């Protein structure tokens, strides 16, 4: 299955440069190549084969092969496969060739690797710090195995410079990290002339907690609970992706009922989040009535979660090998009734907001993300779908349960706030339909296939469609059922740079609205 | 317009009457409890607890849970071989003294960086809130490194179901306007300065409430290179609200407790 025509052609063209190939987990192809050839290969895969760079990370493999490794993950979204280019970096050199000039989506990954591993991306157009702020010393790289998790380096005093726009009448507006609303912390630096925004630079990582480092050496069981706490409102899809990866490594198939139970919860999370986003969008245009309608519906969605598992954030549902218990049995009628109620109310509210000229005026042609930029930066989820990228993990990388369910992916092309609103509204309806259908065709049976032990130094990807988009976790196991490396890439990481582009040319008062239409997670980005 | 009026008539009031009345029909998960009679002190839950909240003293044959660290995941209930650990639906857990939430007492470091008048400030505040603001309280929420779960629940306080404004509690945009800071998150390295600045910008007298396991103790994220063990290392805390995340009503209980209204 993995030997597609395009993959074959790639291995033929670069036959001399490929040192090793490994086929695993049915849809992952790892090719090890010379560091010197990385730029030409990545460029070929990205531009000729059309595979987007979906993740990129380094790994301290000195204990395994005396080198650092960098993984470039490309996805074939038509066939549902990963193509991973791996290259080994000599610890004496501590540098690698930057591919940002040719593959734009690599920009932030390379800066992240530089901060966390001290590997230098040579030729990066803007290699400034990403993860660490001015208080972090130069010579401390937490993701190296030699760094102690509990070591807190002394506070340094370095200044971080923002990109400057210099011209007559251009001024800067600094915002954050503590914002006016009840949201997460981040610092925004607007360069503005009059009203329109010329440039926006976001300094994030205020909530960087060191999750990836923390998981190393911990048991696979504990890391499940950590994965639930990567980003609060995406608790379920994050642990879903983590479980998928571990289940692939353990080579077990989860029971069919567990698969459908996960679908129900994943869609419930999507519904809850989208309703919350729509409420927030209405608040940001001062449309109080609609905002409270959506918040009421969100409350009803939370009530379903409470009824099913006792946790509004769907924590403690997933378990390695399935779900903790049969949450659905006997509660089908309650779910159906509640969903019908939400659906009806959503239809009514949708009609009301769509006939409000003032509302449409605010959201239409605001915060346009062009398809070209969205593709280059690998914008995912509703942000990508609003700009005409027809991609949904549930269709491209379907699991057993999603294969049996029919649903449509919303298609919008203008890339403005209105399109993202429409994507979210349509996805709410789809989510309701998916849950109803899943309840109907869900087979009876057990919900958990116990995983007792996993083989050491195995790796696999877990991929899910969270409410914000494509969510990719890569897990490598260590000795005694522990984690050796856990790379988390949430959709927010991809969409933050897209947001910075979408606000350009818009007036400052529209920023909260555009920001909310993306609704990015700071915690999911900062880790 | 007609449709809007129709909706307003259809849903006149969805607000729950908490704290006067608590809806116990919802089977939500609250704090875990260990039945000391059933427990065999095998230590399995202590070893596997993801946030190391369970303490076992084998010599004294004593076991208990530090609720400021507990993330309410339910693992102890699942793995207990004799069924001694059970998840209850108790959610009103907020305490003014962190040690009241703990099994083993914690000596919280000397607060040399604090204003000495803190004790006096606190007692004055109670009187002040009643006298000066009547029954109203202005809150500034600060995320000092949470996963956004607690923040979503704080947001939930002003939704139609909880509507904290009916109790005179509302959220303001600046610490300069606030009587209380509602802090979430494990006080990450990059937020420590911002948190201290926000605290200093809040006029005296003021209250600080730690929301969620991370703010109380660091929770599951405690003691990494980028986090500290709770916000009380940075600012003095008046009330601790455990939970991961605490439900909106649990937060409301904590806020009211800080005001001595429950």
From TrEMBL, chain A:
It is a peripheral membrane protein. This is NADH dehydrogenase. PROSITE patterns: COMPLEX1_30K. Keywords: NAD, Oxidoreductase, Transport. It comes from the Bacteria. One of its GO terms (molecular function) is quinone binding. It is found in: Cell membrane. GO terms for cellular component: plasma membrane. Residues 31-151 form the NADH:ubiquinone oxidoreductase 30kDa subunit domain. Residues 299-523 form the NADH-quinone oxidoreductase subunit D domain. It comes from Acetobacterium bakii.
UniProtKB/TrEMBL annotation, chain B:
InterPro entries: 4Fe4S_Fe-S-bd, 4Fe4S_Fe_S_CS, Complex_I_20kDa-like, NADH_UbQ_OxRdtase-like_20kDa, NADH_UQ_OxRdtase_20Kd_su. Keywords: 4Fe-4S, Iron, Iron-sulfur, Metal-binding. It comes from the Bacteria. One of its GO terms (molecular function) is NADH dehydrogenase (ubiquinone) activity. Its cofactor is [4Fe-4S] cluster. The keyword 4Fe-4S applies. Gene3D superfamilies: 3.30.70.20, 3.40.50.12280. Residues 30-59, 61-90 form the 4Fe-4S ferredoxin-type domain. NCBIfam families: PRK06411.1. Belongs to the complex I 20 kDa subunit family. Belongs to the FrhG family. This is Hydrogenase. It comes from Acetobacterium bakii.
